[in-house]
Design brief:
The complex is a heterodimer of chains A (260) and B (438). Chain A has 260 residues and is α/β, with parallel strands linked by helices. Chain A has nine helices and ten strands. In chain A, the strands form two sheets. Chain A has a six-stranded mixed β-sheet, sandwiched between helices. In chain A, strands 2-1-4-5 form a four-stranded antiparallel β-sheet, with helices on one face. About 10% of the residues of chain B have low confidence. Classes of the chains: A alpha/beta (260), B alpha+beta (438). The complex binds adenosine-5'-diphosphate and magnesium ion (MG). Adenosine-5'-diphosphate binds next to strand 1, strand 2 and helix 1 of chain A.
Chain lengths: 260, 438
């Protein structure tokens, strides 16, 4: 695929929520183009419309007005079934609250998108599942359930699930919001590595420090884009991790100090 | 196919998660299906055993009993009346008086019930061309029977020498009483199988003296076991010459019924018509008058027996159907609860690409699995019930394929019907709102 090709093109997208007679203009005419293979951060204060935008980009919702081309296909007027198919094939979601099935083990969770997709006989399901689970470093945990995993591990499961159908874009809405900074950095490292392999990644955050892991940041306020910034030298999460002392090391040294 | 298996797996998982709740929900179906299958099997078993018993007598049997046709005559309602077997003292007096006045009253069309006499048997034997083995029967329940110092109650069947052939019984030992015994009113008795084992054990009763209602009889033969007819066993009966019963035990000259074999099944209707004509002449009934007897065939008995069991089955099945309905409503209720509880799961599945149809199928599958499991457990209960019944009674009611298939399709249908609304609600949930659901 041509790396310079636009993967997402939205024009004048608005979203109005109606609660009884009250109207909330969550998005006020958004224009946005995203290149294939880009790593884009969306920054903005709470309530600025970040999640609304992500839901529309991820085909979980449709805009009130405006056009949305995803891989040159107009998806702004599709019905429920067609949207479900797009979500299944072209989009990988990663949520702040993980959204894993708590009663299902890791394999089952990662398998989920495959259950709802037809065809795809090129490779056996099992191989595919174990490959993505390996790629996020959870090979030993396949039989465990989400509640037996740490937050960081759960988010890795969610990433594996997002990857299993080989989607065009990965949408991550505050994926590190519930994680400590080191674990968050680990998740960012995974995203960066995926991006290097060619995946388009949209990343929502309200922390500038995290936003700077991407190649571009757009700023959102009151449902409108207020600015854009190209990051010439994005933060390398892997490097950061190496500089960051591990929590255990800290505790160990603390323990040594006490014993001395 | 794979998707279906997947859904069944999901269904079992989610049901296993709330084992007690699932079981309680299934209870209505379990009880409903269990009773439907049990009732249908028991009904079929009962009908089969009755049918078998009637057929063992032969489907070409006719029975003449006293009684009037239920027709109003000259504005006066005349009802049928039959004469019971066991006689009390006052009844006996009544019978005698009726007998003395019998003919005059009969001619006046005054007497309300007809009577059957041995003369009728003779007339039929002489005139009926389509009947054979014509036997009179006079039964008396609860007669006192004693041997040595053992005393008990038995059923007496008083009849003619032809009865053995007619009923198709076989002798274990000795002889049935003869025509001479009948004409001489001799005190001979043939014992049913159970009577022998009850009173004689392993001893040989032939030639022994027993007492029936205080009168001395000699045992001439014993019968092989014959099993049950209408819940009553001929094995508990004793058989004596009809004249002996009339003259020495009851002091009457009537019989309860006359039974006969028709020469062939094809001519049963003609045989009944013939017997009717002979009997009417014998009873001096004028043309246009009502017969003072009734003639029924074993085929009619069969019909009656099966219609009785049918009514029973319909009645009990409708009770079971109500239980199934209640069970279905319970399933619907719990499925609504399940949809609410799993709103977030539904949101996740939809976000990941599940279509409305996928969610719908998932929840319908779950409700069918719930209902069908109840059905299968219910069938298990039915097997248990009929098994226990079979062990403690002589009623054998094996579970046949048809009620099982019916139960399985019923419980599937219930799962489907009562699962549709909850599944539809689940399918229509908005994914974003569902994901936000706590
Ligand atoms: N389902 C909804 N119904 C009504 N208003 C909503 C709904 N979802 C979001 N909003 C409103 O739209 C605005 C943008 O919300 P959101 O996109 O969640 O912001 P963010 O993710 O940036 O915090 C907020 O004012 C919010 O209250
Ligand atoms: Mg948000």
């Amino acid at each position: 695929m041509n790396m310079n090709k636009k993967i997402i093109e939205i024009k004048n997208v608005t979203k109005i929520y109606k609660i009884d007679s009250l109207k909330v203009n969550a998005l006020n005419g958004i224009d946005l183009e995203i290149d294939n293979g880009e790593f884009l951060s969306i920054m903005g204060p709470s309530g600025s419309g970040k999640s609304t935008l992500m839901n529309i980009l991820g085909c979980l919702d449709i805009p009130t007005s405006g056009s949305y081309l995803l891989e040159d296909e107009d998806v702004s007027k599709l019905n429920d079934n067609q949207l479900a198919e797009i979500r299944n094939k072209k989009v990988g979601f990663v949520f702040q609250t993980f959204n894993l099935l708590s009663r299902t083990n890791i394999t089952g969770n990662v398998e989920l998108p495959l259950i709802y997709s037809k065809g795809k006989k090129s490779r056996s399901r099992k191989d595919l599942i174990s490959e993505v689970i390996n790629s996020v470093g959870l090979a030993e945990w396949v039989r465990h359930r989400p509640n037996e995993l740490s937050g960081g591990q759960r988010q890795r499961v969610a990433i594996a699930r997002a990857l299993v159908n080989d989607p065009a874009i990965i949408l991550a809405d505050e994926p590190t919001g519930n994680l400590d900074s080191r674990t968050g950095e680990e998740i960012m490292a995974i995203f960066q590595s995926l991006n290097r392999q060619g995946k388009t990644i949209l990343f929502v955050t309200h922390e500038i420090d995290l936003a700077k892991h991407a190649g571009r940041i757009i700023y959102l306020k009151d449902g409108a884009i207020t600015g854009e910034e190209i990051i010439k030298d994005p933060i390398d999460a892997q490097k950061r991790l190496e500089d960051m002392p591990k929590l255990e090391d800290k505790i160990n040294s603390l323990g040594e100090n006490i014993s001395l | 196919m794979r998707r279906i298996l997947e859904n069944i797996k999901i269904a079992f998982k989610s049901l296993a998660l709330n084992k007690l709740r699932s079981f309680l929900t299934m209870l209505g179906i379990i009880i409903g299906v269990g009773s439907v299958v049990a009732v249908m099997s028991i009904g079929a078993g009962a009908e089969a055993s009755i049918t078998e018993n009637i057929q063992s007598m032969g489907t070409n049997t006719i029975t003449i009993t006293p009684g009037r046709e239920q027709v109003s005559m000259g504005g006066r309602e005349v009802s049928a009346e039959s004469i019971g077997g066991a006689q009390t003292g006052t009844d006996l007096m009544e019978q005698r008086r009726n007998f003395i006045n019998g003919f005059t009253e009969n001619e006046d069309e005054e007497i309300s019930a007809g009577e059957l006499h041995l003369e009728d048997v003779e007339a039929l034997k002489e005139e009926a061309s389509l009947l054979e083995e014509i036997v009179p029967v006079l039964t008396g329940g609860g007669s006192t029977f004693s041997y040595m110092n053992w005393t008990g109650s038995v059923n007496i069947t008083a009849t003619s020498e032809d009865y053995l052939n007619f009923a198709g019984y076989e002798l274990e030992k000795g002889n049935f009483f003869t025509a001479d015994d009948v004409s001489n009113s001799s005190n001979t008795v043939v014992l049913g199988y159970n009577v022998v084992t009850d009173y004689f054990g392993k001893a040989n009763p032939i030639g022994e003296n027993v007492k029936i209602n205080g009168k001395k009889f000699t045992v001439t033969g014993i019968l092989k076991s014959v099993g049950y007819t209408f819940g009553m066993s001929a094995d508990n009966s004793i058989y004596i010459p009809i004249t002996t019963a009339q003259n020495k035990l009851y002091g009457i000259d009537t019989v309860n019924q006359i039974t006969a074999k028709v020469t062939s099944e094809e001519v049963i209707d003609e045989a009944i018509a013939e017997a009717k004509t002979i009997m009417r002449i014998q009873h001096h009934i004028l043309p246009g008058g009502n017969s003072d007897f009734e003639i029924s065939s074993s085929a009619q008995l069969l019909e009656m027996a099966s219609s009785v069991t049918d009514i029973m089955v319909i009645l009990l099945s409708s009770i079971a159907a109500i239980s199934l309905l209640v069970g279905g409503i319970g399933i619907m209720n719990i499925m609504f609860v399940s949809v609410t509880e799993r709103t977030r799961e539904i949101g996740i599945r939809k976000a990941i690409g599940a279509k409305n149809r996928d969610i719908m199928i998932q929840f319908i599958t779950e409700s069918i699995v719930l209902s069908l499991s109840g059905g299968i457990i219910g069938i298990g209960f039915a097997v248990l019930i009929t098994g226990v019944l079979g062990a403690f009674t002589t009623l054998s009611s094996p579970i046949t394929a048809s009620p099982v298939i019916m139960a399985l399709s019923f419980s599937t249908a219930i799962g489907l019907i009562f699962g549709i609304f909850p599944a539809m609600r689940a399918a229509r949930l908005n994914p974003i709102e569902s994901l936000r659901h706590e």
